């Protein structure tokens, strides 16, 4: 995982690391990790076919993977953390094909 917590980085620079075109959005979300025993709240701020960027509502413990849940629609998607910067995380969607290889 890439940690971008340095003074020269901004959340805009984090977007430069993405692998696909992203659409800016603003949707409430929750991430569930540690076998469903821990969670975080945030805002989904951009999304693409391969992943998303989330602004966390508060500081949270470190985690490597989580289930992204959209509050309004109830949609869920397994994710892997790709990078962190302050209260932002970049996540890669885990596809069934990738999960089978792991």
From TrEMBL:
GO terms for molecular function: cyclic-di-GMP binding. Residues 1-24 are annotated as: Disordered. Residues 1-11 have a biased composition (Low complexity). InterPro entries: PilZ_domain (IPR009875). Residues 17-95 form the PilZ domain. It holds the Pfam family PilZ. Residues 14-23 have a biased composition (Basic and acidic residues). This is PilZ domain-containing protein. It comes from OCS116 cluster bacterium. The lineage of its organism: Bacteria, Pseudomonadati, Pseudomonadota, Alphaproteobacteria, OCS116 cluster.
